[in-house]
Amino acid sequence: MSDFLMLSLVPMLIASIIASTCALLGNFLVLRRQSLIGDAISHVALPGIVASFLITGTLAATAMMVGAGVAALITVAMIALIKHLGRVESSAAMGVAFTAIFALGVLMLEWHGASGVHLDVEHALYGSLESLIWFEGHDWGALLDRQALADLPPQLPRVAWVGLLVAGFVTVAWRPLVVGSFDPEFAASVRAHPTLVDLLLVAMVAITAIAAFEAVGSIIVIAMFICPAAAARLMTNRLSAQLIWSQVFALLSAILGYVLSGYGPGWLGFEASLSAAGMIASVAGLILLLACLFGPQRRHHDASGEPSLMPER
Amino acid sequence: MKPPAIHDPAILESPLAIQGLTVSYGQNPVVYSVDFVTPPGSLTAIVGPNGAGKSTLLKAALGIVRRLSGEVLVYGKPYAQQSQRIAYVPQRNSVDWDFPATVLDVVTMGLFRQLRWWQFTRRKHRDTALACLARVGMESFADRQIGQLSGGQQQRVFLARALAQQADLTILDEPFAGVDAATEKAIVEVLKSLRQQGKTLLCVHHDLTTVRDYFDHVLLVNVRRVAAGPVDEAFTESALQQAYGGRLGALQLERIVSVNSTPGA
Question: What is the complex's ipTM, to 2 decimals?
Fold first, then answer.
């Protein structure tokens, strides 16, 4: 059991917090048909981190966060600019902006790679959940031991703060978020500031993606922004219920995915473990698949926008 | 026509006074220097061919679309200070009806200005929303998912949301587009009852044959303002010809403006 505390508790907590935070925001991304934003921002974190390393010469967490944050802001500005100047739809603007910046990041990575310094690309993709070990977590008493708690990996409080921030944002801005997601023109007419709320939502996505990036890598972030929320949408026609379903699916993916990656191969008789991030994302995808097949609200309207179930007049 | 001065009492009392409004997408102006002073207590149709900039004119007036130039006053003040006096009903197909919301949820959005961002709706808000639904004959649909409604029912829900706003001026973008006859009749009745209460209504309208029956004022536009005023004065054959650029047949025109030829109508 001490094994669990030392090796598994922290990664599971971090994965759960990140999954739940991403899924919370994901509900709005899915409803606004902006799912690509999470994807874009997770990609952009890489060049941001490389740039911050090239400038500061350290891989300190704060410098990385600032670098990724600046890159995210630049990308958001670029998307807005391309949308405005090029008059293209937002997904096209996003696709252009984040591939361009990601490509720039790859070039920068090669350049500094040539200078003989090591920065892990794999880490950026798959994260390093398994390495977040709590060395002082020998027994349950450690949970009450101030000194042992101080030894917790710093990623845990970091993602916890981000989770609280996002939960606070969704609570405070609930009504403008909902109105702006459903009917932006009406939202503008009642001065619900849809543009500002939109920007704040993207900023929250960016903060979450960056905090998650370091702990769990970008794959899991992309999966968690979309899968739980999309699956939840198929379970209910009520937004509040959808939020709850998305949280259930997110936590289920995080915990089940982590357990399966660590112990699954052992149960099958293999002496290995799989990437936790990869397994969590796979479980999330599987849940979405099941929801697509069996979700009670999976009957959607056809492309013409006409309802498929015509009620009586 | 010379634009009236800003201290003109007609402008200060108007629910929506537009002066020199210009909007352009790229190089081409969509709305060019339009002046229109909405008469208080009127039921006004905005009429013009497809692509004449009718919807854009309204969206620009409300600040939803950026305007290149022009001044918009709501009861003599900028829109930002008076937005609670205006209810806007966008085109029905501008939103995603697959959104996870009930009919009541959508109508309650009309109470947005009455609540803080994070406030929950209470019993009295629910009752207000239900009363608004009853006015459009949709109270029995309160708990339905909005995606399960027909087009006409969706339009009535939008109208109920505007009623919940209790505005002095209601602006509707094509409220009769793609709705059934029963809904059209129900909407017209609500609009006329609002006018009776002294409210003002401004409505983008497509069907030229019903302009005379439904509206008392009209604004004819085709990028520029073509004509405006009481229906009897402004809704003439020559104005229609000018707005539609000869796209209307002689027979059509005769049917549309026939009442006009009878003196004293």
Answer: 0.88
